[in-house]
Amino acid sequence: MNTPSEPVITSYAKAPAKTITAGGVTFAYRELGPKGGIPVVFFVHLAATLDNWDPRIIDPIAQTRHVITFDQQGVGASSGTVPDTLEEAADDAYMFITALGFDKIDIFSFSMGGMITQDLLVKHPDLVRKLVLTGTGPRGGKDMDKVVGVTYYDIFRSIIARSHPKEFLFFNRDSVGKQAGKAFVGRLKERTADRDQPINNKAFSRQLKAIQRYGRSTPSDLSVITQPTLIANGDNDRMVPSILSADLHQRINDSELIIYTNSGHGGIFQYWEKFAPIAAKFLTK
After folding, report:
1. Taking the mean position of all CA atoms in its chain, how far away is CA 242?
2. pLDDT of 78-119, one tens digit each?
3. pLDDT, tens only, 116-148
4. How many CB atoms lie within 10 A of CB 212?
5. What is the pTM assigned to this prediction?
6. How far apart are CA 285 and CA 271, in angstroms?
7. CATH homologous superfamily of 12-284
8. A Gene Ontology molecular-function term (predicted)?
9. What is the 3-class SS of the chain, one letter each residue?
10. Residues 127 and 103 sit within 8 Å (Cβ to Cβ)
11. Cα–Cα distance, 166 to 78 (Å, whole number)
12. Residue spans per domain, the chain
């Protein structure tokens, strides 16, 4: 008699929390969707933990793909210390992916996650089959290093307004942006059990400094990125200037660029109803 297989979880709010140890670091991660084949690994943004992914983006992809999210070293429930550079963070990511037994993946990245992804691809161009870069920019990109000032300024503004910092950092402050920001923050609370640990101030500061170094360093040769690449952003990104998405589009041959009007750093979250099906289709071709 055959034993019924486990039901496939396609809701990020219900994805089980797991850990794996590699190179002396215990990485916290979650996985969902049907297993088998090439997984989609999600690379998260500055200060984010497992709880900071929008389920309206992840869930449609998990309908047909094996999805994996993870905490970088020193963040959330992962052990260790946040590295000084994003190149080292890329090395950590490679260590995590290979520990899970994968030699080919797709990547969905946002903001700092997209920067780490680029560093990963420069070293391991054959690791990735398809690539999604959102709200991000290239190493040495113009005004990338200003992210520190913008971040602290918007955190201060959010404290005064008694709002979540992401409402200021990710969304415009018009009526549409304010509504989108509150809806986004609300969706991040849908998972009620077994939530992650928030990032601490020291780890946050180290990440900011690593992004600043990335912004002030010599550009990478992105001609190594030859796989299908989808790039997306809002037209008013104050954290990672929108023009840097166009810069990536120029540097990565045959890439596709989507810019959403009247939106900021979190344009893909504001317009999730449009973007999620596009991303899911791109990743299932």
Report:
1. 16
2. 999 999 999 999 999 999 999 999 999 999 999 999 999 999
3. 999 999 999 999 999 999 999 999 999 988 888
4. 16
5. 0.96
6. 22
7. Alpha/Beta hydrolase fold, catalytic domain (3.40.50.1820)
8. hydrolase activity
9. CCCCCCCCCCCHHHCCEEEEEECCEEEEEEEECCCCCCCEEEECCCCCCHHHCCHHHHHHHHCCCCEEEECCCCCCCCCCCCCCCHHHHHHHHHHHHHHCCCCCEEEEEECHHHHHHHHHHHHCCCCEEEEEEECCCCCCCCCHHHHHHHHHHHHHHHHHHCCCHHHHHCCCCCHHHHHHHHHHHHHCCCCCCCCCCCCCHHHHHHHHHHHHHHHHCCCCCHHHCCCCEEEEEECCCCCCCCHHHHHHHHHCCCCEEEEECCCCCCHHHHCHHHHHHHHHHHHHC
10. yes
11. 22
12. 12-284
Residues near 95 by beta carbon (within 8 Å), at least 6 away in sequence: 22, 23, 25
Contact 181, 164 (CB under 8 A): yes
The backbone torsions φ and ψ at residue 109, rounded to the nearest 5 degrees and listed phi first, read -130, 155
Residue 107 is which amino acid? I
Of 246, 4, 281, whose CA–CA distance to 133 is shortest?
246
Please enumerate in sequence order all residues whose Cβ is within 8 A of that of 213, keeping only pairs 6 or more positions apart, or say none.
84, 85, 86
Q: Residue 210 corresponds to which tokens in the numbers above?
A: 């690593």
The model's pLDDT over 204-226, given as tens digits with 9 standing for 90+, comes to 999 999 999 999 999 999 999 99
